[in-house]
Amino acid sequence: SGIDFEIIIIDDGSPDGTQEVAQQLEKIYGSDKILFLFPSGTAYIHGMKFATGNFIVIMDADLSHHPKFIPEFIRKQKEGNFDIVSGTRYKGNGGVYGWDLKRKLISRGANFLTQVLLRPGASDLTGSFRLYRKEVLQKLMEKCVSKGYVFQMEMIVRARQMGFTIGEVPISFVDRVYGESKLGGNEIVSFLKGLLTLFATT
């Protein structure tokens, strides 16, 4: 790629074989390129401590987020000198594959409500596939208080509030083949509470 990179894999005890794959990658690319961590707190904070680059791309490791979009994120960042480049499922040729109607309606509904109440200036608030300028990510992490699904939304809303610039790249999100989504009734209630809190405080 011609890009100097490192990959930080953060495993929170997932039973899906992440450890074995990380160890194989370390053998192939060397420990200077592959860093495998067990978090002692929030994965973002843990990963950020060890990241040595000027930019950080955050993504799920189950291939719901395809690595082929990373060069597009980098191109977009350079093109507009953006502080954040966010993957969007709801713009251009972006999309979601493998979700049932209920999950699609929840995601669409969450984004619609957020757009109406918060006017964030970005089309996909609940996705987590993003590129951040490292110092911007650090400042946002200091400001954000949410957990779970609201966290991604708060990151974008706070970024706008703090005057950071946001670009978007359409992505295809493919639902995980193995494992279960953690989205349930409690998460939906938490999301709505978080949304109203942000509406009241931003």
UniProtKB/TrEMBL annotation:
Main location, first listed in the record: endoplasmic reticulum
Domain Glycosyltransferase 2-like: start-end pairs: 4-140
Record-level GO cellular component terms: endoplasmic reticulum membrane
Cofactor(s), names only, from the UniProt record: Ca(2+); Mg(2+); Mn(2+)
Signal peptide range in chain numbering: none
A biological process from GO: dolichol-linked oligosaccharide biosynthetic process
Enzyme Commission code: 2.4.1.83
Family: Belongs to the glycosyltransferase 2 family.
Name used for this protein in its record: Dolichol-phosphate mannosyltransferase subunit 1
